[in-house]
Amino acid sequence: QVQLVESGGGLVQAGGSLRLSCAVSGDIFSINVMGWYRQAPGKQRELVARITSGGKTNYADSVKGRFTISRDNAKNTVYLQMNSLKPEDTAVYSCNGQVTTGWREYDYWGQGTQVTVSS
After folding, report:
1. Number of neighbouring beta carbons within 10 Å of residue 34
2. Of 26, 66, 91, 113, which is least surrounded by CB within 10 A?
3. What proportion of the chain, given as a percentage, has pLDDT over 90?
């Protein structure tokens, strides 16, 4: 059993910052790519940022220069530092991990955390 647990969401004013964390626990052999996705009301889920086990990153154009994804492999944790937040960043943010367990790789998702940016 593998679990992803997010924390760090909340309400912030435009221009402010938040840091999201996602901790992976359970029967883990290895973790490959980890990513953050978001879904705003009435919109499809979209990739925000992702990071490989080696630290290679890529970002959605809308967050480049404002958000930074990082990971601590020793803690099986991925972070999303969000700066200069805008009202359009308001969404439920979910963590995704490609986790090898039981000799196979699976996609796992966290439960999501709400980020609300007020104007």
Report:
1. 26
2. 26
3. 97
